[in-house]
Each structure stands twice: as structure tokens, then as C-alpha cells.
Amino acid sequence: MAYDLKNEEDVKEYIQNLGTEYRFGCFNEKKPEVCHLLGDFLESISKDYQKAGKVYRSNCDDYNFPKSCYKIGTYHLSGKGGVEVNGTKAFNYYEKGCNLGDSDACFRAGWLSILNVKKKKDGKQFLEDQKTFLQGVKCLTKGCEKNHSESCHHLSSLYMDGNTVEGDVLQKDMAQAFSFALKACELGQVHACANVSLMYKRGEGVDKDEKKSEVYRRIALDKIGEANAPQLTFQEGLKPA
């Protein structure tokens, strides 16, 4: 059946049929990818966050669908849909999603682990099980290997500074910092492009090269322009800066 998406009644019928199709594909045919679509439908269209959370949880627990693990992890982090706010559960779901291949989950697991260790200094630890600094670095590395730009960018920053946290030592390594910054830039991370430009300019982690410094400065400026241009996007969850 053809729908006129300019017609309000047709749109309502289309959305209703879409929900029915997703429910059948999930509950009857037991297709994990369709269950995740049902979760997205309940979250974005129906605004029924409680049911969406249940679908995401089941799809992660029962079918090991990585993106659903990421989503229910985010629900545990924010308390969305009345889900218990629990940093440890959020981390565990992120870690599972990461191990199943979801790069967003790798970034969140790494970010949470590193943030938790740093918060512990102030008595504000929020993960029940102690997660080490290097565990966080490992998760970020997995994310970067899966071409997650923010994971690469955060790794670059960590290697740029060097860190010693509770006996975990990450040596300052400007060559590694440059390598991760370059990859993050190539993946579209504007701040990483600016860092690459500065590193070429200063000869930090790479041979000094004024021409390449200017090239990456221009790339950074172009990306800033693109980011500021009016655009409509469908965003999936809040990503920490």
C-alpha cells in the first residue's frame, strides 16, 4: 500500500503499521535487529521509555545485540524510563556491548572507567567494582580500532599528558598521541585536527612541518564551519564531550 506522507491520517496509519511490524518481527520471529528497532520505535515515536528500556535490556541479555547493550547502559546511567541509576550496571552493559563489537559502547565503558578512577580521589567513586585506569584505556583502544573518533581523540589526550593513577602507569608518548589524533581527525573529530596542526607546528610526536600544520589548520576550520551550518540530525543518546 502506498502512503501519502503529507496526509495526516496516512502518516498515523503508517506509524501504527510500523509498530505492529516491529512487534511481530521481535516477539514472533525473534529477530534481534528488529527488537532493537522496536526499542527505538518505543523510545522515539511512542515516547514510552519504560517499555523501550525493557526491550533493550531483553535484547541485550537474551540475544546479545550490541547496540541494545549500549542503549540499556545509557538508561542505567541517566535513569531514563524509571530505570535504576546504577553506574556499575551501566558500565557492565557498555563493556558487554563493546565486547560484542559496538564502538559507542567501547567509548562509554572507557570513559566511565577513567572518570570513576579520577572521581575516587575525591571520594565520589560511582562504580561498585573497582575499574582500573588501564581498563578504561583498553576499552577506548577497542573503540578507536573500530573507528570511533571520540575514542581516538580521548586516547590521544591521555598519551599527550601521561597518567599515573593508583599504580597504573600510562607513559607520556607524543608519537602515540599524534597517531591517535591523526586517526581521530581523519574520522572527523575537529579538535583532533587542530591538535594535529599544532603538533606539526611544534614538532611534537612528529617531524616539524609548517606546510602540513597549515593543511590541518584549514581542515579544522572547514570542519568547524560544517558543524556550525544549519542541519537536521537524528541523534541517538547524549555523548559526553
**How are the strands of the biggest sheet laid out side by side?**
1-2
Order of helices and strands: HHHHHHHHEEHHH
CATH overall fold name of the largest domain:
Serine Threonine Protein Phosphatase 5, Tetratricopeptide repeat
**Count of strand segments:** 2
Organism: Lygus hesperus
Keywords: Repeat
Protein name: Sel1 repeat-containing protein 1
Pfam families: Sel1 (PF08238)
What does this 3D model show about the protein?
- The structure is a single chain.
- This protein is mostly helical.
- The chain folds into two domains: 11-146, Serine Threonine Protein Phosphatase 5, Tetratricopeptide repeat; 149-227, Alpha Horseshoe (Serine Threonine Protein Phosphatase 5, Tetratricopeptide repeat), CATH 1.25.40.10.
- Helix content is 67%, strand content 2%.
- It contains eleven helices and two strands.
- It has a two-stranded antiparallel sheet.
- Helix 2 (32-44) runs antiparallel to helix 3, helix 3 (49-61) crosses helix 4 (66-78) and helix 8 runs antiparallel to helix 9 (174-186).
- It is globular and about 60 Å long.
- Residues 231-241 have low confidence and may be disordered.
